[in-house]
Amino acid sequence: MNGLLIALRQDNGKHLYEQIYGYIKEEIRKGRLRFGERLPSTRSLSEFLQVSRSTVELAYGQLLSEGYIEARPYRGYFVCQVEELFDFTDRGAVREAGMLSGEPLRENDAADGRGRPVCGGRQNSVADGTYLCDFSPDSIDMTVFPYATWKKITKEILVDANSEMFSSGSPKGDYALRETIARYLHSSRGVNCHPEQVIIGAGNDYILMLLEKILGRHVEVAMENPTYRKAYRIFASFAYPIASVEMDGFGMSVEGLRKTGAKVAYVMPSHQYPMGIVMPIGRRMELLKWAGEQEDRYVIEDDYDSEFRFKGKPIPSLQASDRLGKVIYTGTFSKSIAPAIRIGYMVLPLPLLRIYEERCRIYSTTVSRIDQRILNEFIAGGHFERHLNRMRKVYREKHDLLVNGCRGMGHDFVLSGENAGLHLLLQDRRGRSEKMLVERAGEAGVKVYGLSEFYTDGVAPKRESGTVVLGYAAPDKGQIQTGLDLLKKVWA
Amino acid sequence: MNGLLIALRQDNGKHLYEQIYGYIKEEIRKGRLRFGERLPSTRSLSEFLQVSRSTVELAYGQLLSEGYIEARPYRGYFVCQVEELFDFTDRGAVREAGMLSGEPLRENDAADGRGRPVCGGRQNSVADGTYLCDFSPDSIDMTVFPYATWKKITKEILVDANSEMFSSGSPKGDYALRETIARYLHSSRGVNCHPEQVIIGAGNDYILMLLEKILGRHVEVAMENPTYRKAYRIFASFAYPIASVEMDGFGMSVEGLRKTGAKVAYVMPSHQYPMGIVMPIGRRMELLKWAGEQEDRYVIEDDYDSEFRFKGKPIPSLQASDRLGKVIYTGTFSKSIAPAIRIGYMVLPLPLLRIYEERCRIYSTTVSRIDQRILNEFIAGGHFERHLNRMRKVYREKHDLLVNGCRGMGHDFVLSGENAGLHLLLQDRRGRSEKMLVERAGEAGVKVYGLSEFYTDGVAPKRESGTVVLGYAAPDKGQIQTGLDLLKKVWA
Q1: Which of B125, B390, B424, B428 is deepest in the core (most CB within 10 A)?
Q2: Are the Cβ atoms of A364 and B204 closer than 8 angstroms?
Q3: ipTM reported for the complex, 2 dp
Q4: What is the pTM of this model?
Q5: SS (H, E, C) chain B
Q6: Subunit contact A365:B342, Cβ cutoff 8 A
């Protein structure tokens, strides 16, 4: 069995598939399973381990998503090329971070694989009411927001309102909230950090403004194309030179990145916006290797919607694999809670934390202490987890409805990006233009978004046939069904 | 009577002294009363107008504070030199602003002289408990904050909580709040602006960060010295060259300013921090004239604590006299409400508003919509006015206690800056050093602040004998009395 001596345990709280996945991942990371080696078939491994075949399939699926293995038709599963320059044991990084104040991180907060990811990202707007269905990829569903819980927490917080709470707090944000966020990111996204490394700010844009002060001026930033155009425009507003780097099916091309003079690469490895690509582990390692080659190179990881993944367990953050302090991890609660709360955060690697302390402690916090307390209670009290679980269910139903509907359109379209996040892509196979698809839909009262809108120069490469982006968070199921029926008709 | 044909009315809602003040001010502004002309004595004018002498004294006192007239011992009151290049009728500016959306400003919101100024400023902290009395100039009294009202408003706002309120709002802030602030600033500070010109942001520091994006890079800023060091450090963090300009008894020397290459002058005309100087109208006009000479010159007016004035009616803002669109008016609610609420604002002149629209609309608002609603209701519902009136009473009592105590120290000290704001200055007459005064006080358990702390290079000019700054907002009356008793003893 190729040395796969997996000792499965029923009593350690981990699903069997996770144990299989974890074991094989470690074998690959440590080089005991080598590039090109073939894994046992799911049937033979399930027999060997005396588990169901679907358990093994789940484990292999996760390894596939994360890029550790690849499937070759009719031949089986093979180990992918993974850069081996890094020691992947995350403990080193945690210890280093923990030493900041001599305070150890709680070991029992280590990733438990139950998948409770945090954060959010894109600019969110309430769907426009002028369409029968608006497939906006930037909106979220606020109808199931736990207003009552939020109000209750607010009331309780205000009962204790005192002068201390109305005083200005730490520039980085309240320690209690930073601790909660650090713990949460650790358990849900594998992020290794000490609360000292967490900086809270009023939204993603402000976080980037702070980052500008830390990184300095004239810093060339490499971005994927298409990308999150708001971030592009914000970097442009800093007068940062921006290099658009080509993407392949694994995300940003590191070869392309090397051709630029960029010091900073801005990526969304868990779910690229808008392409929906999950960056496999090999590409992640290449990217970290690139960053490690020069002292002033960094990777900004925008983990904007990783809480919504519909297949397998969550993809760990890039920061989780970073041992050299090269990843700036950013996220917000705009997508996972509500755009209005205006709370985002970043996790700084130690060299940049030192620069923050020197240059940026002067900027007072931009988030009210009362709001920080409310959010802290919402997360620490378990409400956030419950909310996310509810949202996952709501979004999964909409996701499944949309995915099935799109598949029902037959062979006219290629569906992609559908395993995570709150939008998917449909690429036409019949050579019809994006413009034509968007216009026909619009005439029928359905708003879909052309992929070219996401390119930094506003025009998708000519060779591609029309691709549209469909977000499904905001419309309700009835609207999605109506939208699908209409699209089927006008795109027939 | 020198042509002082004042038609006093009992029915127009204005105090008699305000009518006299307003009349004479207009006569000076319009040039009908000329530089050097002598005003009637208070006795003769009061007989002429058939009002009490104290009414005329009040009017003259206000004209003195604002720099329209000066008192010459044994000779009487004389008209000061006022730059006459500007048309002082503010209506022009209001109309210009109102035209932005074709919507007129409400005329009945014109300055009613009842003195309800807004805004706040310095970095506030809760007083340190290790002293018997801490005369921090940066703290405020939170013991009388209307917690119950704040909670009630929060509850009411949350009752209506809906998805719209939890969505992200306008980058500039909610229109309703901007309208409320514009109206408030107009009535209380004479600020002429349309809500379109008001930008809301999470605190003064963020407002300055936005301003950096508007003004651009390498902009030389002129500051008084001593000044508000936090603003100094923030400009320094922008890598702005900073010119420290000397001050005389009227504020920043415009002659000194002309010697620099500064494009922007940062001043606190209503109550200089820390010197407490009120910039007289003549100097204001000089400053505006300087700004008017070049297209890219601007004045930042930091109106940080104008709501607390203990003599006469509030000094109007510099922006109120600005007809050429040269003043950037900034303020916060940190001092007037609470540091924790993290809401500040700026009023942009039209040329800079256009630049904001071009470059900065991309930055999402940094203040939660819920907080914006709460603040809007707090102001529009009249709670802010009541709160300010309560605070004025509280602060006036502490102010009077401290001023009387300081006067009781005899001729050893010169008292200054005591007519406004929440701190005053004591300058030693016996040649004792600041260090010695601060240390003796500290040994007795009283924290006072050396003036040199406020100089940008950290050292007060050598020629000055020791000066200390005493803030009285945070300590209670008992602590102030204890502090005074101890200071009297150790400084005897």
Answers
A1: B424
A2: yes
A3: 0.74
A4: 0.78
A5: CCCCCCCCCCCCCCCHHHHHHHHHHHHHHCCCCCCCCECCCHHHHHHHHCCCHHHHHHHHHHHHHHCCEEEECCCEEEECCCCCCCCCCCHHHHHHHHCCCCCCCCHHHCCCCCCCCCCCCCCCCCCCCCCCEECCCCCCCCCCCCHHHHHHHHHHHHHCCCCCCCCCCCCCCCHHHHHHHHHHHHHHHCCCCCHHHEEEECCHHHHHHHHHHHHCCCCCEEEECCCCHHHHHHHHHCCCCEEEECEECCEECHHHHHCCCCCEEEECCCCCCCCCCCCCHHHHHHHHHHHHCCCCCEEEEECCCCCCECCCCCCCCCHHHCCCCCEEEEEECCCCCCHHHCCEEEECCHHHHHHHHHHCCCCCCCCCHHHHHHHHHHHHCCHHHHHHHHHHHHHHHHHHHHHHHHHCCHHHEEEECCCECCEEEEEECCCCCHHHHHHHHHHCCEECEEHHHHCCCCCCCCCCCCEEEEECCCCCHHHHHHHHHHHHHHCC
A6: yes
